[in-house]
């Protein structure tokens, strides 16, 4: 017993115990840091995908509105050929038919990335 007590009070044991405590603390800190970085990265990717979706919806709705305006523009500006009017109507009809497919895809994406209220609002406004 007399040989163990001085050994336990020695600088080597104190250094060893301090090293173990420091290693456990460092491991805990690194694990929490890694979890924080992972959570931050996931949130950034999620936000980027939400923004991309909103930009795509805005772009496609803007194109549909612009094509609708291009139908009335030839009529309002005066005498235009029937071919020009037909071209405007044709391009609008083509895009409108593709819009119905895009709209359903956007509803599914919105349901995945956003709250239910946003999806319901989009569904009501896209009718």
Provide an overview of this structure:
By secondary structure, this protein is mostly helical. The chain has one domain (4-125). The chain is 89% helix and 0% strand. The chain has helices spanning 4-8, 11-76, 82-113, 116-125. Helix 2 (11-76) packs antiparallel against helix 3 and helix 3 (82-113) runs antiparallel to helix 4. The relative contact order is 0.06.
Annotation keywords:
127 residues, mainly alpha, 0% strand, rod-shaped
Shape: rod-shaped
Q: Which structural class best describes the helix and strand composition?
A: mainly alpha
Question: How many independent structural domains?
Answer: 1
Question: DSSP strand (E) fraction?
Answer: under 5%
- Would you identify the regions where 5 or more consecutive residues have pLDDT less than 50? none
Radius of gyration: 32 Å
Distance between the termini: 88 Å
* Helix content estimate: over 70%
Q: Give the total of beta strands.
A: 0
Number of helix segments? 4
Largest sheet descriptor: none
Name the helix and strand elements from N-terminus to C-terminus, one letter apiece. Answer: HHHH
Mean pLDDT: 85
In short:
89% of the residues lie in helices and 0% in strands. The protein is mainly α and 127 residues long.
Q: How is the topology of this model organized?
A:
Layout: H1 4-8, H2 11-76, H3 82-113, H4 116-125
């Amino acid at each position: 017993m007399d040989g163990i007590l001085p050994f336990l009070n020695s600088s080597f044991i104190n250094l060893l115990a301090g090293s173990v405590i420091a290693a456990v603390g460092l491991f805990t800190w690194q694990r929490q840091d890694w979890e924080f970085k992972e959570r931050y990265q996931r949130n950034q990717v999620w936000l980027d995908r939400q923004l991309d979706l909103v930009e795509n919806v805005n772009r496609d709705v803007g194109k549909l509105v612009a094509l609708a305006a291009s139908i009335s523009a030839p009529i309002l500006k005066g005498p235009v050929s029937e071919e020009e009017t037909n071209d405007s109507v044709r391009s609008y009809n083509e895009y409108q038919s593709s819009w119905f497919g895009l709209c359903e895809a956007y509803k599914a994406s919105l349901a995945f990335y956003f709250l239910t209220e946003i999806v319901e609002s989009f569904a009501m406004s896209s009718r």
